[in-house]
Amino acid sequence: MTKIIVALGDITHQNTEAIVNSANPSLLGGGGVDGAIHAAAGPELLEECRKLGGCKTGEAKITNGHKLPADYIIHTVGPVYGMTSGHDGELLTACYRSCLDLAKDHLIRSIAFPSISTGAYGYPIAKAAPIAIEAVLRWVKDHPDAFSEIRFLLHSTRDYDVYAKLLGET
Ligand code: ADP
After folding, report:
1. Hey, whose CA ends up nearest to atom 19 of ligand 1?
2. What's 61's domain CATH number?
3. What is the tens place of the pLDDT at every residue in 83-107?
C-alpha cells in the first residue's frame, strides 16, 4: 500500500528518500525549485550533473542528494507549456512516470514531487495538477507495493489547495 499525501513546504527540507527536481534539459541548474535544490545540495551536485549529459523532456536522471536530507535527487524535465505541438499533457505524465520508474529501479521507497512545469515553464496549475495526480495514481495501481509514500510537495497555499481538493475527490 502506498500512502499518497499532499504537503506544503520546501522540497529541499523533505525527509523522503528521494526528491524530484524540475530541471531544464542541461541539468546544470536554473531558477525556481532547481536553483533551490542546487543551493541546498551544494556544488558537488553540479559536478555530478555535468557528467549526465543532460536530460530530455519527459525523461529522468538520478543523482546523489549530497547535502540534502534526501539520499537521492531525481531530475526530470517538464514541458514548456504551449511549446510541444500539443503534447504538453503526455510529456507531463511522462515526467511523473519516468521519475517513479527510475526511483523504483533504485529501490527507493519514498519520494516527494514538486509541481513540475507550473513555474517558469508556465503550465497552469489547474491543468497540471489533475494530470500529475492521475499519472501517479495510475502508476501506483500498476505497482501498489513499490513505494511506502509518494508526496506532492507544494510551495504555495494556492497550489496546495488545488491538490488537496483534487485528492480529496479521488
Ligand atoms: P518549472 O520550470 O518546471 O516551471 P519552477 O521551479 O519554475 O519549475 O516551478 C515549479 C514549481 O516549483 C512551482 O510551482 C514553484 O512554486 C515550485 N517551487 C519553487 N521553489 C520550490 C521549493 N523550494 N520547494 C518546492 N517547490 C518549489
Report:
1. 33
2. 3.40.220.10
3. 999 999 999 999 999 999 999 999 9
